[in-house]
Design a protein that fits this description.
Length: 363
Amino acid sequence: MAQQFDIMPIQQWAKPFSHPFVIAGPCSAEGEEQVFETVKQIVKNTDKVSLLRAGIWKPRTRPNSFEGVGEIGLPWIKNAGKAVGLPVCVEVANPQHVELALKNEIDVLWIGARTTVSPFNVQDIADALKGVDIPVLIKNPVNPDIELWVGAVERIKAAGIKKLAVIHRGFSSYEKTAYRNPPMWEIPIELRRRFPEVPIIVDPSHMGGTRDMIYTLSQQGLDMGFEGLMIESHINPDKAWSDAKQQVTPERLGEILKALIVRKPRFIGDNFQALNDLRARIDRIDDYIIELLCERMGISEEIGELKKSQELAIHQAERWSQIVKRALQKGKTGGLTDEFILKMFQQIHNESIYHQSKVMEKN
Ligand code: PEP
Ligand code: MN
């Protein structure tokens, strides 16, 4: 069941706001100039960005990589944001980061994928946020474990944060894939089912790991009806100190945002009644399908009784071939694909066998 969750929609706390809600900026703040120039170029190339980002403390998988400039970078991003009139966000991984970010008037915080995996760390951050009114974005954990993600949302929510959204940045997998972090869309879709009010922002940069995948992944995210995008952008991506391959120039960012087809996330408009009527008809048909299936299983059980009395095997190959043949023919006349009919009847057949074996087991 979906949980009732008192969350403020992004449009109520974000200024400016446009749909989709776009966050952009460099993976890492590297220097005052780099941050300032990137931000300036972003607003020059697009008016679709509502929030700026820059990583200040970088959680690196291996030591001896660039671990972020630290506290010194906080005023760089804050001032760059002020100069162009946009709010800014940084990643926080512990209470000290929270404290420094708040001291430097950072507008929004995000919790990174390597932090969401640790309930201890998430709880420490939640405790540091008690009594603070700031929006918090929670990235999914690195591993495909929805409960860790849900747990982090619950912990931050319990700290009193109502301006809350999640960021879907894909999940790591042991197998080599075309993605850096395969999207596994079914996981954010399940999160949406459980918490319909929690806005979902898609991060195509960390998902794809290469800049040429950003457009397609962004479009897929919008097609799922998700609310926003977080895209890494750098004035000189190839020279970036972290995540060089997945960052785009502000110019390219502008092109990508312009090319995206934005559809309404929820149905609004005059035809709402018509849509509801059609959905009510679908619900009635679904009920009817289930009732018919129950009736069919009842008959299967009667057949099971007969087979039992005749000591006949449950599965009769010839009869099964006949059923499939009839169904494929009938389905074709109504425009249903063979693949669908076959899969559906395989499932129905499995359920029938299950019901008949129950009959056979009974003494
Ligand atoms: C980032 O946003 O730069 C980052 C470190 O992302 P993630 O936590 O998704 O790996
Ligand atoms: Mn990054």
